[in-house]
């Protein structure tokens, strides 16, 4: 089919967090050009594709587990301060696409309880509200996330440079070798996603109280 020639290469990560009665549950996955590369299930992170050597992967995996534990402790603390009697579900979808003409597009989208909540505008490294109406929770989360300029710049660089660079290497047929030289490939995405979720968890302080 000629249309398939225009299909972009893509690297996509989906990460979900469910918070209920002070407990957090994590799951998600990453895929490179449509092939599953990583899985996140609870505190277990699995590298499906050998994108990193065993020693580097072991360090990265431990970093992710440490952060997940820290995130869970934060949620428990927030829950004690302001109990929420219903389940909250956060979902992050991020990644990049490389088109045959050499152009690229990066994205980062956050939904809360199935509704578009925030998105990251990559060209100028800013967070934007997507929640319908003038919701104080979305405004609070947007304001809090913009307090961390280094994080937003790092995320911009990762999506525009690292992520796209991996796809360019994949397109040139040298994806595996190049992937090994970018030790922050998928786990950088995971840590970046969860770090931002850690800041966005302020919505749990805002929900059910005054922002």
UniProtKB/TrEMBL annotation:
Keyword Glycoprotein in annotation: yes
Instruction: Please name the SUPFAM superfamilies in this protein's record.
Output: MHC antigen-recognition domain
Q: Supply the alphabetized keyword list.
A: Glycoprotein, Membrane, Transmembrane, Transmembrane helix
Any one biological process term the GO annotation gives:
negative regulation of coagulation
Any one cellular component term from GO for this entry?
extracellular space
User: Molecular function (GO) terms listed?
Assistant: signaling receptor activity
So where does this one cross the membrane?
Answer: 184-205
InterPro entries, per database record: Endothetial_C_recpt, MHC_I-like_Ag-recog_sf, MHC_I/II-like_Ag-recog
Q: Which domain of life is it from?
A: Eukaryota
Q: What protein name is recorded for this chain?
A: EPCR protein
């Amino acid at each position: 089919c000629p249309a398939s020639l225009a299909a972009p290469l893509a690297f996509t990560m989906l990460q979900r967090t469910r918070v209920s009665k002070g407990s957090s549950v994590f799951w998600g996955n990453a895929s490179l050009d449509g092939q599953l590369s990583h899985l996140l299930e609870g505190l277990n992170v699995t590298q499906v594709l050998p994108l990193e050597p065993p020693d580097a992967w072991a360090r990265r995996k431990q970093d992710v587990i440490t952060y997940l534990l820290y995130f869970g402790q934060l949620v428990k603390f927030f829950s004690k301060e302001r109990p929420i009697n219903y389940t909250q579900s956060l979902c992050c979808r991020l990644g990049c696409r490389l088109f045959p003409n050499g152009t690229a597009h990066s994205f980062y989208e956050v939904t809360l309880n199935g509704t578009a909540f925030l998105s990251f505008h990559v060209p100028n490294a800013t967070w934007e509200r997507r929640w319908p109406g003038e919701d104080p929770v979305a405004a609070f989360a947007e304001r809090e996330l913009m307090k961390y300029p280094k994080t937003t710049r790092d995320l911009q660089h990762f999506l525009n440079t690292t992520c796209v660079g991996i796809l360019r290497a994949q397109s040139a047929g040298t994806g595996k070798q190049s992937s090994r030289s970018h030790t922050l490939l998928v786990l950088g995405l995971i840590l970046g996603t969860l770090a931002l979720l850690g800041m966005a968890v302020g919505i749990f302080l805002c929900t059910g109280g005054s922002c």
